[in-house]
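Operator note (shift B, R.M.): manual run for Zinc carboxypeptidase requested after the automated queue skipped it. Running by hand, logging everything below so the morning shift can see what happened. Input copied straight from the record, untouched. If output looks odd, do not overwrite the archive copy; leave it for review.
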Amino acid sequence: MKVLLVFVLISLAALASARKPFAARYDNFKVYRAFVEDSEQLEEFKKIHHHLQIHILHEIGGPNRSYDVIVGPLFQRAFEQVLHDLQVQYDIIVEDLQALLDESSVDEDAPMDWETYHPLDVIYDWVDEQCDQHDYLECQVIGHSYEGRPIKSVKLSKREGNKAIVIEGNIHAMEWISSATVTYILNQLINSEDEEMQRLSEEFDWIVMPMVNPDGFVYTHDVERLWRKNRRPNGYSNSSGPCYGIDMNRNFDYHWSGAGWGIEDPCDHWFGGDEPNSEREILALQEFVNSFEDGYIRAYLAFHAYGQYVLLPYGHTNTEFPPNYDQMMRIAAAFADGAEDAFGSVFTYGASGLLNYVVSGAAKDWAYGVKDIPFTCTVELRDKGTFGFFLPSNQITEVGVEVTEGLKSLVAKAVDEGIFD
Ligand SMILES: [Zn+2]
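Run finished. Output pasted below as returned.
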């Protein structure tokens, strides 16, 4: 009897852990899309979170754009009242966030595929397996996260003298589609029978970092699906206690801070740190990229969600443009054309300071401005806001396909443009 009881208890514990009992739930939480027209409204809008518990999903840039905001049932009426008082127009784009999250199925035990989202150890096991199976892959732990998790890289090289393309994934924890897409691309480069894919894998070296933010990613699986930053206590606190994390795509040292920086609250989801290069994950990434000889890496692509953009340098200004901006625009256009051909998804391209908002510290700006890599970009994957950060898992494969198609034409155009010469 005792043995049976222990067995039942162990089984219950196992079941409970599979269900992640501590993960925050969002039953009846709504997502509002608020259209902030002018800077006066923006100033007030920024203050709402001081007295209502809300979660703004976008970094606050300028006025004249919309912001998606998650609000729990307790605060919805008050939030709507505040927007009404400020004369901020809004739509409710998600009625029940939990229902949406439930569509992003995670099968903790399923082997690696691109039908469902996977936890970190499944992704890493798959990476290790590929490395064991193919001797043209060189795999490395390039450093460790704050909580001590390895940050892994895969370098694919089948031919001496190739130039390299860097692909970076999941620097923002909640953007699960990023690492899903990066591993999809890597899998295509390794295992696809498609001739063009095989040619890409033959004629170029690929340096892939599928998971730059393992701590944040694990945290999004176990505790808080909406987490963006890493998990280092950042030295500040607010009414709910110590604040954690740095937005690592604002931590790179190129024109860091300055215009559009606008950090008022270090507990914000887009806090870029007290100084650039403060995060060990970022230092590991930089040291790794620095370990290659100058001129070897010719393109650097950072995958993010969402909005369907190819964002080019610069981020820190919208009046100054990179010397080869027109060339980068042509290459970005090629990506957009290739991607659209697959399923009709439209990607918009241009300098991030223009298309998004002026902000510094992103990987692509560092890769371009500091490392002199002649084509760099941030690719914001699907979608344009229907599911936003919570793209259902049944879209992973389609995203993989369209991005791979985009990549093929991007590389072809970059070759035409002499990027790899
Ligand atoms: Zn991102």
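Quick read of the result: The pocket of zinc ion is lined by residues 172, 175, 249, 304 (CB under 6 Å). The mean pLDDT is 92.
Leaving this for review. - R.M.
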